[in-house]
Amino acid sequence: MEKDNNIYRILVIEDNPGDFALIEDFLEDQIYLPEIFQAKNFKEGEQFLKETGWAINVILLDLSLPDKSGEELITEILAISSGIPIIILTGYPDVAFSVRSLSLGVADYLLKDDLTASSLFKSILYSIERKKKSLELEESQKRYSDLFQLSPQPMWVYDINTLRFLNVNNAAIRHYGYSYEEFLTMTIREIRPVEDLPKLDEQISLLRNKTDVHYGGIFRHCKKNGEIIWAEIQSNAIQLDNIDGRVVLVNDVTERLKYILEIEDKNKKLREIAWMQSHVFRAPVARLMSLIDLATNYENTEVEQREFLDKMLTSVKELDTVIRCIAGKTDEIDQ
């Protein structure tokens, strides 16, 4: 059988020479040149781990050592092992204690009487791989936590079924005014205006039926102080502690929308000014031009001439009113 060529550094904490020799044979049967270190009691194991424990891949631990045994031994080894996988090797079949040991954090629990080279090697491989996956998961969770908490924009996770907040970041706490503890007692319904709740219920119904849906839009939110803001949200499905949730990223677009509305209002006033220039302004100008033509190019009686001048004056006053109106609307745009 071909042996595993990977490097394995294994600490065996075992006081019985016969048991240690058997374990050593089993390891050498499966692994090409394993690095095996022995500690004959807890004290030696503690000293070894404090000095060189970082280089160890797995610990094989006998439960009955001269200076410590049982649950106390497991607890203290776990405390100094820095997360190295620990496999218990014992000669006493105790199902309840084996379950208890696993719950304390050991990687596996093996009976010496049933031990074979193959079963020991498989346990070592599985324990190392589980630890590797556990570290990857912890790193992934840390990256998620860092991205979540360090985001300059408000973020939260809520339960898609109960709508309760499961987690919120610091930006959300600052922006909305609620404390972290307050958020965790609330649902997302409580940051929506009452009149917007029917629309929210429709959205939630859609998301519950299609949990993988990316969802976004602009909605009204309420801060703790009662201020209404417009929030652009983007959300995706997420599993948090085995709960179906949604992670939400919020962008407050209140000022942006206010600016757009101001621009639209100014554009409306500009269109009104343009209409005045093209329609209202032209009418008195056209009348003036006609009256001037009649007054200068035709023979008129004194009465007719006076009538033309009165009408000219009326048109001039009308023109002045239009100009003042345009000037007023221009001033409104500049404000």
TrEMBL record:
Pfam families: PAS_3, Response_reg. Residues 9-127 form the Response regulatory domain. The modification 4-aspartylphosphate is found at residue 62. InterPro entries: CheY-like_superfamily, HisK_dim/P_sf, PAS, PAS-like_dom_sf, PAS_fold_3, Sig_transdc_resp-reg_receiver, WalR-like. Residues 140-211 form the PAS domain. One of its GO terms (cellular component) is protein-DNA complex. One of its GO terms (molecular function) is transcription cis-regulatory region binding. Keywords: DNA-binding, Phosphoprotein, Transcription, Transcription regulation, Two-component regulatory system. Transmembrane segments: none annotated. The keyword Secreted does not apply. SUPFAM superfamilies: CheY-like (SSF52172), Homodimeric domain of signal transducing histidine kinase (SSF47384), PYP-like sensor domain (PAS domain) (SSF55785). GO terms for biological process: regulation of DNA-templated transcription. This is PAS domain S-box-containing protein. It comes from Dyadobacter koreensis.
